Fold this protein.
Amino acid sequence: GAVVSQHPSRVICKSGTSVKIECRSLDFQATTMFWYRQFPKQSLMLMATSNEGSKATYEQGVEKDKFLINHASLTLSTLTVTSAHPEDSSFYICSASAYSYTEAFFGQGTRLTVV
Amino acid sequence: QKEVEQDPGPLSVPEGAIVSLNCTYSNSAFQYFMWYRQYSRKGPELLMYTYSSGNKEDGRFTAQVDKSSKYISLFIRDSQPSDSATYLCAMRVNNAGNMLTFGGGTRLMVKP
């Protein structure tokens, strides 16, 4: 399957700072990227969908000013958690797909801890 | 009612057992069906996908889809401790821009 690389795998930041998470498709051009949040022992919660060159579409209840998504190229999307607070601590996962693909491929996930 | 329902488990089986994981769905527009495996603190890994009713086999894994009953299953034969993970079913409609709808995931534990 296709490879999606997510970085960093783990990050600890102070409350009030911003954190950027990168998601790269290594061997294909990802026309669409998805960002998920996952709480312990729960399934993935879709936060937003981004298409290359377009503004991201956020799911209901997700603050777009807090979770900034940029999909500037066909191989890179970034999620920036702005002014992070302890309640933003979670596991964030990206996935990438292309119109020619049936399935989506996931990154390794980023565990964010805000202290 | 959620669009995709999946028994959360945990499901505990002895090594070598046959495991059956199941999902039901309510949206008849779903056309593509996938199973992902997720180890603790890792991203989901695609195991299998299918788009037609019937069975699809890959090694010890068999994916089964029954569109008339809106029911999909994943069977694992000769289960191994390394199969211990959370299994997520996912599905999408044909033109949803590849957006997936996930089940809640089933935690599987295979005891040696």
User: Anything to note?
Assistant: The mean pLDDT of chain A is 91.
